[in-house]
Structure formats: C-alpha cells, structure tokens
Amino acid sequence: MSENKVVPVKKKGGLGRGLNALIEGSYDKKVDPQILHEVNTIAEIKLSQIETNPFQPRSHFDQTALEELAESIKVQGIIQPITVRQLDANTFQLISGERRYQASKLAGLETIPAYIRKADDQQMLEMALIENIQREQLNAIEIALSYQRLLSECNLKQEELGDRVGKKRTTVTNYLRLLKLPPDIQIGLRDQQISMGHARALINIDNIELQLEVYNKTVAEELSVRKVEELVRNLSKPKKETVDRADIPAEHQAELKKVESRLSSHFGTKIYVKTSNAGKGEIKIPFVSTDDLNRILELLNY
Predict the structure, then answer these.
(1) Annotation: CATH topology of 5-126
(2) Which of 24, 68, 98, 126 does the annotation list as catalytic?
(3) Which of 50, 179, 243, 293 is the most buried (most CB within 10 A)?
C-alpha cells in the first residue's frame, strides 16, 4: 500500500499538546506502507479509498456550509484529521469527520490526514453518534433518534447514555420524548418551524388532533413558547360540565334524590347523579369487586 504516506512528526503550535495527548504520541510512530496500518496512527490516505460511515446519524448536510468549509480547507488545509478504521489493504471507512471528508472532496484534495483506530460495528455507531451529539451539529430530532439508537443498538441504559454524552438524564429523557410526537410535528421541529421549547409544550397534549391543531396555530401565528404553554395549560383544565347541588333549585334537587334512590335500589349500590342547569350530567355506578361489576352488567343486560 505504497500510495499511503505516513505523516512525519510535526511540532506545530496550532495543534498543541491536545491532539498528541489524545492519540498518545502517534505522530511519532512509523508505519510500514507495505502492510495494513497499525491502529492509533495518523496517515495521509487517498479520499478515493475512504467509504462513508453507514452508521452516520446526520441525515442532512448544509451545502452552503460545506462549500464554505471547502474554501477554508483550500487556504488552511485540514487542521484536525478525520477518524477511520481500515477494512482491508486498500479500503478505509469513516468513523467521524464526514463534513471534513465531503468538504475536502469539494476542495479538490486527493488525500486527507486520518487517525486510524480499531472499531467494530457497535463501536462505529457509538462513536459516530456521540461525536455528532457533542459537536451539536444535529437538530433536535436527529439527537433524539441518536439517543434512541444508542439505547437500543448499543445496549446502553439512560444513566450510562447521559454519562457518555455529558448530559443529565432529564435532558436525555426530554429529547427521547420528542419521538412520541406525530410525524408532522417532528418534521416541523427538524425544519426549525418550531423550537425545542414549543415541542416540549406540545408533548403535554394527550390528544393527537389537538396537538396538530395547536402546532398548526403555532406555526401560522408564530406563537412564542410561553403562549403555546399557556394554550396547553388551558386545554388541560377540566371543563365544568356539572354544578354543585346548592346551585340547583330545591325542586330539582328533590327529583334528583328520588332518581338516585330508585337507581340505588335497582342496582343494589349507591348511585350518584350529577347534572347542570343546561340539563347535561352523568350517572356514576361504583362497584367494589369484579364480581360486583359483573352483577351490575347483568342488570344492564350487557
């Protein structure tokens, strides 16, 4: 594999000691170009030999931002190497750094500095997800999906996940709850039509139709998070369909008591009747056991 060159030892101030400490002095290692690269080394690798990461959590790369990065690379070069694993003598696979990889192709580079490490598929997924989350390059839905994949595919618990990504468990939980929203609202959050604050308020609406109604109102009227929270609070307040007996005329109260007495006698249990001045109301039939419920159902011919 003679086309791959080993990067010589450099003491540039731009990288400082941080990168060297991270890779444990791998700049000082010499790699035999005739065999597979050793892990924990940095080598200049042809872009044509690198495959993209199949576990990449990002679903969208902003083209304008990539072009700006490409222009920077033309002037400054690659400041931070990408990370890859070696599949065979002529093939590498990205672990992290796809924006740098894509921008380098746009810049017309033929090779790119890459840190080579050993990783299985699960480690590939975990490293790609965590790197992107920590760099805050993902939208809220992509972060939520990344957290979900870490939990399900990497067999992490929420406490472990919080430690891995440097977030509190409550933060992780709030992101995961976003995945319970209807697809239309998730798309709106992904496309930045609403914010994370809006979405967290909408989650508290149990009815999907109401969620979508408030969401559409939020987008159409560009409502603030505080206004949406107020709407949701009002929706959660129970509507008063009944009134206290004291507000009902005495003659009606007497009639209700008679109705309750007849129903209680018929069902063999205390029956409660509530009503409003508008004529609406409800009848409550309590039961003390499954057998008691079955007895009441038989009386109802159910």
Answers:
(1) 3.90.1530
(2) 98
(3) 50
